Amino acid sequence: MNYWLMKSEPSTFGIDDLARARNSTSGWDGVRNFQARNYMREMKKGDLVFFYHSSCPVPGIAGVAVVQREAYPDPTQFDSKSDHYDAMSDPDNPRWFMVDVKLVRKFDTVISLDELRKHAAGKLKDMIVLKRGNRLSVTPVTKSEWSFIESLV
Question: Where is the EVE domain (predicted)?
């Protein structure tokens, strides 16, 4: 099993939206960064995901989801009415992919970015989301990082 962190703006799609989705499952579409896309293509069914709220008053980890469906072409890339439309995408050779995730649990309190940063010199020193300049919406998390963050809940 692998571990991941996926960022979303709660004003666009937050953990409460995932909770309200049918079977608490939704596609994670709209990723338009090649490295984030490549990470999504590595995801396997059953991998665990920290659901991270970004660009909000208290950014941080809001809960846990599980990958329900492995990477498949993101249909929004072909929809000219979508905010995620990409005129360069070819249906015969799609450039953008998505996965389906299912809510495992919402945390009672968000583990804030400030809280995570308190451990940036120690247990979380290599965590990608804490690196200066990182803006990726999908990043891997090590097993030890996952375990430590779970202990903060």
Answer: 2-151
For the whole prediction, is pTM greater than 0.85?
Answer: yes
Q: How far apart are CA 2 and CA 140, in angstroms?
A: 8
Work out the number of other CB atoms within 10 angstroms of the CB of residue 89: 17
83-101: per-residue pLDDT in tens?
999 999 999 999 999 999 9
Q: Helix count (H) and strand count (E) of the chain?
A: 5, 6
At 136, list the tokens. Answer: 């990726």
Q: What is the pLDDT of residues 121-150, one digit of tens each?
A: 999 999 999 998 888 999 999 999 999 999
Note whether 117 and 135 are within 8 A (CB): no
Residue ranges per structural domain of the chain: 3-151
* DSSP 8-state code for residue 133: T
